[in-house]
TrEMBL record, chain A:
Annotated ranges, domain FAD/NAD(P)-binding: 25-138
PANTHER family (UniProt xref): FAD-DEPENDENT PYRIDINE NUCLEOTIDE-DISULPHIDE OXIDOREDUCTASE (PTHR43755:SF1), PTHR43755
Alphabetical UniProt keywords: FAD, Flavoprotein, Signal
Record-given protein name: Cytochrome C
Domain Sulfide dehydrogenase [flavocytochrome c] flavoprotein chain central: 158-273
Residue ranges of every copy of the Flavocytochrome c sulphide dehydrogenase flavin-binding domain listed in the record: 349-417
Signal peptide (residue range): 1-20
Family annotation (Pfam families): FCSD-flav_bind (PF09242), FCSD_central (PF21706), Pyr_redox_2 (PF07992)
UniProt keyword Cytoplasm, yes or no: no
An example molecular function term from Gene Ontology annotations: oxidoreductase activity
Amino acid sequence: MRLTRRAALGLLAAPALSRAQGAARLLVVGGGFGGASAARFARTSYPELQVTLVEPQARFVTCPYGNLLLGGFRQIGDITHSYDGLQAAGIRLVQDWAAGIDAAARTVRLRGGGALAYDKLILSPGIALRWGALPGYDEAAAEVFPHAWMGGDGSQIELLRRQLEAMPDGGVVGISIPANPYRCPPGPYERISMVAAYLKRHKPKSKVLALDAKDAFSKQGLFQDGWKALYGGMVEWVPASQDGAVARVDPGEKVFETEFGTRHTLAVGNVIPPQSAARIVTASGLAAKTGWAEVDPLTFASRAAPDIHIVGDANNGAPMPKSAFVANNTAKQAVACAAAALRGQSPPEGVYFNTCYSHVGEAYGISIVGIFRPGPAGFVEVPDSGGVSPRGVLPEQRRLEAAYADAWYASITRDMFGG
Amino acid sequence: MQGMPWPIAVLLVLPLLGGAAVADPAPLAAQGCLGCHGPQGRGTGAGARLAGRDAAELDAILRDYRTDARQGTIMNRIARGYTEAELAAAAAYFAAVR
């Protein structure tokens, strides 16, 4: 039976994609914080696995530290990473889009033709932007009001940076922030900070108008303390209860319109739109009605398909945040569980780690820490652990946390890509 | 390789890695440390080097963070999330890295 199935799958695969005889096949879809981490961890920890990574982009531009481009503290090359190190480690890289999954046959169809067979699939495709969920915001509108919320080829974050450079002093930079859940809970507020840092230095008569669909946010007290200390009155954050929720955008008029009809005319507009799991997840029937994938909190196996482990922002990991560190860390548990199953062993115990640093200023960092474990009905934060940086006037703490953020970026990208 | 004891499989596959040094991976509970302290805890910038330090010293530091007997910048918040056994395993791993 097994030989027959393998023979059939062999016919599906293009000749160049044929596999070594015998090794268990771990296929990873998506080369971001979840997928690249999974592929490299599998390659270095489980030599019996043949590891293949499917990723359409030739290089990976990180979302983390993208905001520092807006502040002028990093260049695009600083946040762009090659897959050469993964290939050198023995991971087969297939530069293509995963177009569909046949969970019963355990194959992934490629947009460029052919299909890849797997014994276990690590699916880490990230998010999709829900075009049209915010009226007026579609792909064309994103060329006027960039989202800059997916790394892609870097063009979105660079567009936003160029718009800041081109705007007149005295203008308003609008940032539309969605309701939960979305990728990187503190990210919009770091973005506010980094835009303010740019404006303070180059366009001091300008301001940031942050319009939020929520009334509270991650590290709120720390961010607001930092804005006051560093940027004075340049930042205005408007919660939903004070008509902060943007109801539609008009790129032609450069206007954000709120729920109660207030029209804000902007020099630059950044729309962080509502999101869901990436299309491959929703199109393959792996997402719940929420738009996110439900997974087993110990193994990250899909509730809909047990040989598919879904990691990164695409799953519903609440109360874990959709963060790069969670993707990196939980991807390893998913790989360890897949490898254990292939060996006929029990899955290892799970403990999941997150730290999200945010730069309020170039040398002013704050953080939130969380440690989570699998529980009977989902993920559970370890009581009396984690939490945010202390509040108060603590310049050394802020300076150190900014330096630690830099160490985090250097460390985690090496963990993903080698080097 | 099904049916083959996996250490033998490792020996067979290792030469395919081009002679690259393959160290034992960090325990899963210590993988989070690598996010700031560099590959194998060898340190990166402000992320302190853990590799090659005395296991008992590392373990004592982690326990002191856990009880707030020692004040760190973020390590107190982190150490409280782990069991004493997990902290000891992390300390033993980093001490063994050469």
